[in-house]
């Protein structure tokens, strides 16, 4: 080990590689493995969106842009949010285009956090927020929601704020949720907003899966508590554009101005042709997610039916493309050991629920962003594995 490594940032040194990616890489080496691991649409980016990027390249649009995003993209993004969710953001003052939703999370938390601050994180949740909080010098306060249908209750939120009232800076919401597929309805959000509005804290609302809401219409926290909410979204899930890396963050002008500084100093500006593609997606692909959503619902129903037949139980996944399934009683309830054994013996790869923080142990996350044939094969193998374990 280099002597210089001891002089590196201690917060970085305290981090470990992403468990989800490490697990996925490990099981990918197993021959004939069926993977339902990563949260990535298996659809192609819509043709009209790809053509917009190609045209931008052919038109030599290859220079730096405004660090907040091109004017056309910010206008299209603001119009999309207004049309879909009734959000009213000034594209010049309240919208920043970011390097995916991850870039939005990083810029927002870096801009708002002072060392020693605490941030309330309802769990289970995608673990990405935690290392970013740690890098900023904050402490996550986990609130386990597994006993409340995986929805943060106003009572639990109030208790977490009261217990950290001198340090709490923000609360993070992610809905539809990764990994559970559960979402928040308007009445849920209003109750949480009633609590948040009594305190000087920010709600960081990650709504990247908003267009993949199956039961009813997605309601944004930004429409209920706009003065204290930063809304994050993007084109990754709605338009099958994960690799294009275009997200956005919107909110009150004074807060957005601070977030914009971090984003500018981190990335300078987004890739120009990717911005042209995203503008086309927002402007002329308002409903591009509809055929994908229809297919996801079919896959969800196929997966849930097969899992329940095998003895798993699942919270109702009414958004995103995940099922968070409880491992059947009588099997190894350590989710990591279960997933490794399932991969080895049945050649099916799922993600251990424990990776999604408190409330996740005893569960597995299963992505149905895969073909029906792949899902059916996975279900068949899982059912055989459970039957085999039950007779031991």
From TrEMBL:
<protein>
    <recommendedName>
        <fullName>Aminotransferase</fullName>
        <ecNumber>2.6.1.-</ecNumber>
    </recommendedName>
</protein>
<feature type="domain" description="Aminotransferase class I/classII large">
    <location>
        <begin position="32"/>
        <end position="382"/>
    </location>
</feature>
<dbReference type="InterPro" id="IPR004839">
    <property type="entry name" value="Aminotransferase_I/II_large"/>
</dbReference>
<dbReference type="InterPro" id="IPR015422">
    <property type="entry name" value="PyrdxlP-dep_Trfase_small"/>
</dbReference>
<keyword id="KW-0808">Transferase</keyword>
<dbReference type="GO" id="GO:0030170">
    <property type="term" value="F:pyridoxal phosphate binding"/>
</dbReference>
<dbReference type="InterPro" id="IPR015424">
    <property type="entry name" value="PyrdxlP-dep_Trfase"/>
</dbReference>
<comment type="similarity">
    <text>Belongs to the class-I pyridoxal-phosphate-dependent aminotransferase family.</text>
</comment>
<dbReference type="InterPro" id="IPR004838">
    <property type="entry name" value="NHTrfase_class1_PyrdxlP-BS"/>
</dbReference>
<dbReference type="GO" id="GO:0006520">
    <property type="term" value="P:amino acid metabolic process"/>
</dbReference>
<dbReference type="GO" id="GO:0008483">
    <property type="term" value="F:transaminase activity"/>
</dbReference>
<dbReference type="InterPro" id="IPR050596">
    <property type="entry name" value="AspAT/PAT-like"/>
</dbReference>
<keyword id="KW-0032">Aminotransferase</keyword>
<dbReference type="InterPro" id="IPR015421">
    <property type="entry name" value="PyrdxlP-dep_Trfase_major"/>
</dbReference>
<dbReference type="Pfam" id="PF00155">
    <property type="entry name" value="Aminotran_1_2"/>
</dbReference>
<keyword id="KW-0663">Pyridoxal phosphate</keyword>
């Amino acid at each position: 080990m280099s002597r210089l490594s001891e002089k590196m940032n201690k917060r970085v040194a305290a981090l470990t590689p992403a468990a989800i990616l490490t697990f996925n890489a490990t099981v990918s080496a197993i021959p004939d493995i069926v993977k339902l691991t990563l949260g990535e649409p298996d659809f192609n980016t819509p043709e009209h969106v790809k053509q917009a990027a190609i045209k931008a390249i052919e038109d030599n649009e290859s220079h730096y842009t405004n660090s907040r995003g091109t004017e056309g993209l910010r206008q299209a993004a603001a119009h999309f949010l207004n049309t879909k969710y009734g959000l009213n953001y000034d594209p010049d003052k309240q919208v920043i285009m970011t390097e995916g939703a991850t870039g939005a999370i990083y810029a927002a938390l870096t801009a708002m956090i002072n060392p020693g601050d605490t941030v309330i994180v309802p769990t289970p949740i995608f673990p990405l927020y935690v290392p970013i909080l740690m890098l900023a010098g904050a402490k996550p306060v986990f609130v386990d929601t597994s006993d409340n249908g995986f929805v943060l209750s106003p009572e639990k939120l109030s208790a977490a704020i009261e217990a950290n009232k001198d340090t709490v800076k923000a609360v993070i919401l992610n809905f539809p949720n990764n990994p559970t597929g559960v979402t928040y309805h308007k009445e849920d959000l209003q109750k949480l907003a009633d609590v948040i509005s009594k305190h000087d804290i920010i709600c960081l609302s990650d709504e990247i899966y908003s267009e993949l809401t199956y039961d009813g219409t997605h309601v944004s926290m930004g429409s209920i508590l706009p003065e204290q909410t930063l809304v994050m979204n993007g084109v990754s899930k709605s338009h099958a554009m994960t690799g294009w890396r275009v997200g956005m963050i919107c909110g009150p002008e004074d807060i957005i101005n601070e977030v914009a500084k971090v984003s500018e100093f981190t990335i300078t500006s987004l890739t120009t042709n990717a911005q042209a593609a995203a503008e086309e997606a927002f402007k002329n692909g308002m409903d591009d997610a509809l055929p994908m959503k229809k297919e996801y619902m079919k896959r969800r129903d196929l997966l849930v039916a097969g899992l329940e037949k095998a003895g798993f139980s699942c919270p109702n996944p009414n958004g995103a493309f995940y099922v968070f399934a409880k491992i059947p009683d009588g099997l190894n309830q350590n989710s990591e050991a279960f997933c490794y054994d399932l991969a080895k013996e049945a050649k099916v790869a799922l993600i251990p629920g424990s990776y999604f923080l408190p409330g996740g142990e005893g569960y597995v996350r299963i992505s149905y962003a895969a073909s029906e044939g792949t899902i059916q094969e996975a279900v068949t193998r899982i059912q055989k594995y459970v039957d085999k374990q039950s007779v031991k």
